[in-house]
Amino acid sequence: MGSLASWLGFGSKAEAGASAGSAPAVVINLDGLKGQTVEKLWRDQPYLRTVVGFLARNVSQLGLHAFETGAEGNNVRVKDGPLAMLFKKPNPSDTRTELIYDLVATLALYDIAYWFFAPDAESESGWIIRPIRPSWVTNTVTDGAFAIKEYELALPDIKETVLVPAEQMLVFHGWNPEDTRIGSSPVSALKAVLAEQISAQEYRKQRWDNGGRVDAFITRPADAPKWEPETRSKWAKQYKDSYTGQGVNAGGTPLLEDGMELKKLGFSSKEDEYVDAAKLSLTTVASVYYVNPVMVGMLDNANYSNVKEFSRMLYSDTLGPTLRMIEDRINTFLAPMVAPGQMVEFNVKEKMKGSFEEEAASLQSATGRPYMTADEARATQNLVALGGDAAKLITPLNLAVPVEESGEKKFTPSELKLLIDAAAGLIRSGFDPAGALAVVGLDPVKHLGLLPVTVQKPVEPENPDQTISEDLTGEPADEAPATEEV
Known about the structure:
Number of strands: 15
Structural class: alpha+beta
Mean pLDDT: 79
Strand content: 5-15%
Radius of gyration: 42 Å
Helix content: 25-40%
Distance between the termini: 128 Å
Largest sheet: 5 strands, antiparallel
């Protein structure tokens, strides 16, 4: 789209700072930090950079989903609408992750962030979002004490400023007791801590630059033989050549004579409380941004259980207010213009849920039956769907739900056999028969009051002809005459 002025697309110009009825765009108080800017502090101060990056990284990795708002809160996700496409590719050079990262990091440093948005025929969504650096906003044009009508931008490499209507600027900001239209940078509250860290860093650098490799000095007894200047210089040269710089004995133990003593001075991190001061600085920076210090590396009192709970708190107590503010600003001012009736929401549930094992056990316990098909399980591993039986939800036979027709329960033969066997097992174990049938889903069977009958397989007679004769005459047949063995 060419220069920055071209993609803003406005012809109205104004001289920098010449707008009447103006209000400050950004409030940052860095008195006492000579030559320091917010940008330079972020580049140079590790604790500030750690906390700001922690916030931006954890918000930007969340999905930002678009939904069609329905009655009674029944929102349906929209994946292909203009709002979803806009955040999938907000402009030709940024992704959604980069856009959100920039938004959260800018809010953390300045407590205010700007998006310029406008229709764009070249984009898939028909719209474009461009983040505006707070340093580009030089002034604002107001209608009094409340509304801002225009924003005055001084763009890089552009001599004249550009006036942008407030209707095309989406402004995210914190709270300022003096002017609720803008925020107040948290870095202002950290200037004392940051100034202390800058001084401590300079002091340690000076000690390392100006101190000796062996931070000590050598003494000779008062009654030692007097050294001539030439002898003193020769000994000092030999010592430096051997034990300093790239000397052959550098870092070794010097061999002294004439009662000389090596007495150490030097930097002691314990005595200077360097470690405690560093921990205090990190804790203070984290506290100003409402981040638990354990989450950014303060592990003095950390253990597995509390770190796990702190991780759960991250997206509720720590990042929750920021996420809600961003959602509200988008849904109130941007979404109605891009896609009326739609809204966006961060996918916090993805981060709040437990491990796969915990979630699977919880859902199965709640439903009392399998809740996922084989194809759905394969999809979690990015495998193709198989279809057929893999697309069906399989229910074990012992959990079979009867099909009711005309008030009667019907089972398949295999299901009925399995249920009868299950009821028989319960009855043999001493449970009430009627209760056992009810538990497995079968109707009670009326008992006739007869004694149990055991059915046995008939025994085949040894002499079938004799049996037939007895059945016909009703008398036993004559026994066959005995035969003698020869």
